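Researcher: I'd like a candidate sequence for this fold, 283 residues long. If you have to choose between options at a position, lean toward the conservative one.
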């Protein structure tokens, strides 16, 4: 056998024997790796699924689409739309608005909408899922950041209808909110109002989930992982508004390798989607 052919066969065998890097690994609350099938069984029995994503992570977005497809009958809530945008979202879901018209109606869609969220909405339309805008209108979150919760009670009734009952419950000692007060985490002059601005978003999302969840229909909610990590944020507010709900949380995390969760990443959610740090980003 010619030397060149032998060398080619040796190199080819070596390359083929190398394992392809994993795109993700899935872990349970205890830190042990679990199968997608096991997770799906629990998701199908849940009242609410808080799917915590990294907004620019394609693996999280792909899994959202897979999970929604496997749930079949479900309702969908999105942090990416604010409660005053529900009418525009309804018209889009009924095919009365184009993507371009929706973009104009909501004052600008997220930069990765077409690649990361449009497929989810299109699938929801095909599956006849109800779709809800759940986030706080940004101007109200800004008001809380500047003046606290009390300012919201001066809003007209029709504006207060876009929010949870006021004033919302609030635990300033929750670790997630406490962390926002640490040096370097946010504008120092805002003081205690900085985590309150986050809390009004968590409260609004939880309230509109609790108000619209239907028995026998898992409510799949897509939000940034920081809104539901460590069973705080939206999850904490759901326990205040409707404690009987069975809530399952997912989070997205990145590590250099996927062999196992590092200690500080264990237990952040019922299920953790672990993605390589070098994974491609969508923006």
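Model: Candidate sequence:
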């Amino acid at each position: 056998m010619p030397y060149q052919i032998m060398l080619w066969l040796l190199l080819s065998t070596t390359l083929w024997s190398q394992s392809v890097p994993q795109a993700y690994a899935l872990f349970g609350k205890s830190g042990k790796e679990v199968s997608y099938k096991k997770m799906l069984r629990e998701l199908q029995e849940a009242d609410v699924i808080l799917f915590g994503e990294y907004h620019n992570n394609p693996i999280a977005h792909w899994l959202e689409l897979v999970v929604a497809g496997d749930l079949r009958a479900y309702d969908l809530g999105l942090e990416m739309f604010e409660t005053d945008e529900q009418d525009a979202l309804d018209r889009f879901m009924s095919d009365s608005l184009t993507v371009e018209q929706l973009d104009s109606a909501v004052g600008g869609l997220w930069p990765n909408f077409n690649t990361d969220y449009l497929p989810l909405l299109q699938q929801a339309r095909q599956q006849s899922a109800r779709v809800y805008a759940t986030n706080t209108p940004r101007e109200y979150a800004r008001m809380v950041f500047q003046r606290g919760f009390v300012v919201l009670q001066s809003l007209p009734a029709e504006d207060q209808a876009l929010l949870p009952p006021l004033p919302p419950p609030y635990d300033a000692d929750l670790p997630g909110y406490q962390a926002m007060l640490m040096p370097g985490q946010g504008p120092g002059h805002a003081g205690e109002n900085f985590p309150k601005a986050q809390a009004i978003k968590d409260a609004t999302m939880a309230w509109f989930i609790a108000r619209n969840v239907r028995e026998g229909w898992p409510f799949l909610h897509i939000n940034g992982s920081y809104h539901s990590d460590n069973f705080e944020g939206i999850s904490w507010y759901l326990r205040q508004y409707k404690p009987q709900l069975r809530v399952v949380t997912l989070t997205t995390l990145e590590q250099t390798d996927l062999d196992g969760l590092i200690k500080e990443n264990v237990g952040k959610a019922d299920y953790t989607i672990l993605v390589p740090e070098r994974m491609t980003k969508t923006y």
